[in-house]
Amino acid sequence: MRSPAAAGPARLPALAEHRTEANEEFFAEEAPRIARLCHRMAERFARGGRLVAFGATPAERSDARHVAVEFVHPVIVGKRALPALGLAAEGGEIERQVALAAEPQDIVMGFGEGAESALARARERGCLTVALGSAERRSPQLWSSDALDCGTWAFAPADPDPFVRQELTETLYHLLWEHVHVFLDHPGLLAGRAERATHDSGASSFLYPFLSETETDLDAVLADVEASVAMKAAEIGELRAQTLRDGAGALGAAAAELRARLDAGGALLVLGNGGSATDAMDAAADLRWPPGERGWPARRVLDLTEDAAILTAIANDVGIASVFSRQVIAHGRAGDALVAFSTSGGSENVLAALAEARRRGITSVAFVGYDGGAIAAEGLADHVVVSRSQHIPRIQEAQAGAWHVLRELIEAPA
């Protein structure tokens, strides 16, 4: 698939169409393997394993942190928290970190081109290994989909656009997280569990068939998960298109203003909570380390989610509502800009940061979900892009695409 060249707002429909096509092609091919991998991961979690995710580059770090927070802090009501760690280069050499952290029952997930050696070490230890974004998608040494897990499960979107590849990867690990829970709700299909208590669902069995330990129809559940992957992939394709279509005016205006401020020496402040914090990390990486083939300049950026000491000091001494606004007070200057990511559009600390930015003459852009929340209703940001969904993973995926388009438009506003 040929990627559209970076271009101004007039190219937004082409950028949206390209993402829709890439999404359809990738998940149509990979849905069966995604379903089988979810089953393998559920077996590991059921017998006490953890997810250990890692990424060496700034952009890969954001994905490692994102997948870890999704598993530990599930946004699906009633689903269990699953143990997960995110390792990144600030902790030292990645392979050594993985060697110290990974245990035989764990799942080790590596992002990017440099993941192979650390995954090989983890695989030798007995871990289930997953490569996301690896160039070795079809390498016999790495690629596996058989029951023996003799190799790494490698997924690498082939799209030429690095931003689109990241968006597809983010959707992929969201789908893994969502569908692992399907198999955890079907305990009779999980081999090697630490406990094998017998459940009798009695008269309620017609309502809750997954409570029975006598389940044997793995193929049926795999087929259901495969169909669910396809359905959710179609949903995100539609939401990305809606976000870019409805947000075209805001994105175009925001791009022109951000470029003017950055060209004049201003900085861009980025922020968000949880998974949205990792979207802010990704935005900072895209600004500091733009794709080499694009020839774009590196841009000044401050990631307000980055310093754990500052965040915990403010949260402990003042309150969580001030963790971003205090930093805007410390760093923000007239002529700067701020980008906020929020699925709800109503997080108190995001609202406080936007209010402080406005007081200081800092232009603001907000990516929000649902109906836009208080940010959209009260006009708290200068430019608001709304992804109209109630499903947090889909909102974050659409916001990632909208941010990447904005990053392109900053460098090609005409």
Task: Give a verbal description of the structure.
It is built from 13 helices and ten strands. It is α/β, with parallel strands linked by helices. The strands form two sheets. It has a five-stranded parallel β-sheet, with helices on both faces. Strands 7-6-8-9-10 form a five-stranded parallel β-sheet, with helices on both faces. α6 crosses α13. It starts with 11 loop residues before the first helix and ends with a helix.
Q: Helical content, roughly?
A: 40-55%
Low-confidence stretches: 135-148, 195-214
Supply the helix-strand structural class: alpha/beta
Order of helices and strands: HEHEHEHEEHHHEHEHHEHEHEH
Principal-axis shape equals globular
Question: What share of the residues does DSSP label as strand, in percent?
Answer: 5-15%
Rg, please?
Answer: 22 Å
Biggest sheet architecture? 5 strands, parallel
Q: How many beta-strand elements? A: 10
Individual helix count: 13
On the 0 to 100 scale, the average pLDDT is 89
N-end to C-end Cα span: 25 Å
- State the strand order across the main sheet: 2-1-3-4-5
Brief digest:
With 414 residues, this protein is of the alpha/beta class.
Summarize the helices and strands and which ones pair or pack.
Blueprint lengths: L11 H35 L4 E5 L2 H15 L11 E5 L5 H8 L5 E5 L4 H10 L2 E5 L20 E3 L6 H23 L33 H29 L1 H16 L4 E4 L3 H14 L12 E3 L4 H10 L7 H7 L5 E6 L5 H12 L3 E6 L4 H5 L5 E4 L5 H20 L3
Write a concise keyword list for the protein shown above:
single chain, 414 residues, alpha/beta, 5-stranded parallel β-sheet, 13 helices, 10 strands, 49% helix
